[in-house]
Fold this sequence. Notes:
There is one protein chain. The protein has 361 residues and is of the alpha/beta class. The protein has 2 domains: 2-145, 3-Layer(bba) Sandwich (Glucose Oxidase, domain 1), CATH 3.50.30; 153-358, Rossmann fold (3-Layer(aba) Sandwich), CATH 3.40.50.880. Helices cover 24% and strands 31% of the residues. It is built from 10 helices and 19 strands. The strands form 3 sheets. Strands 10-12-11-13-14-19-18-17-15-16 form a 10-stranded mixed sheet, sandwiched between helices. The protein has a 7-stranded mixed barrel with strand order 1-2-8-6-4-3-9. Helix 1 (37-41) links the parallel strand 3 and strand 4. Helix 8 crosses helix 9 (247-255). It is globular.
Amino acid sequence: MKRQLILEDGTVFLGEAFGSNEEKFGEVVFNTGMTGYQEILSDPSYCWQIVTLTYPLIGNYGINRDDFETITPFINGFVVKEYCDFPSNWRSEYSIDEYFKMKNIPGIAGIDTRKLTRIIRMHGTLKGAICSADANPEEVINKLKGTEFPNNQVQVVSTKTAYPSPGRGPRIVLVDYGMKHGILREFNKRNCDIVVVPHSVTAEEVLQLKPDGIMLSNGPGDPKDVPEAIEMIKGIIGKVPFFGICLGHQLFALACGADTEKMKFGHRGSNHPVKELSTGKVDITSQNHSYTVKIDSIKDTELEITHVALNDGTVEGLKHKHAKAFSVQYHPEASPGPEDANGLFDQFLNLIEANKKEGVL
């Protein structure tokens, strides 16, 4: 069965349908990772986006029960050069086609993903639709141009109620803005006593939980669409050590008076080199974000840049000059992918331990 991918600039791709038959709209983005499609499709940071995978063969090791980053996927579509009908892996339980039908996600294969990626790189992120082969492209394009996607992605993907993940180590309050389960796994491995809380939690509610440290998770969308999170962070700076990842990094910057902006096509992949300024060390990192902290906005704040992207010079890490607080734009919990930056979780726990010994921030 044939299917169309239609972009708001008028570009139409005709390909092979797989997964759900439902028509869906979304922001079309691309990821350059050579593996990890299960983690990509289940990453809440892709909420309502249509994800193009530049690696040509997807689905060859199937879908298994263990590699999800969330229970419910939030993506609105997958675009691939070729998908595998008959995966070969001892852990595989579903093909990608079977899983997408279960979760009502449409996919399109057999198109020139290199061409699509070049269009996005040239023109920036575009709105698109995955629809039936007989849909009228002109009508779909007009609908796309008049469509404004909601800005409540964080509210959609965040947990609605707080819940514990008990351990015997330091108490970590993990604020869920669209948390990947990989973050939870890293703290579990270190025997932390974790309480996951919703995105709307207040500073007072966080402090009532008596945390030793606070984790600000990744998540989708524009950080300026989560003003309640910015206010919460303002209320905890200087009171409890904290660590932010991706959206958490951007929210930390906004809470400290810096600014953010949307990138032309973002960073999505598992091979982005990042340089630590204090040591000159370069880590290969996994990334997934559309927004970045504006470098010029940092100079009049209490923030200091700790990491930069070698590909384009954008801000990849920050720390507070006085409070015990730091953040990174990339994903140290990435799996699969490079584990170069995994030690940041140990760095955070060392910061918590030092704070306990000092008795003050």
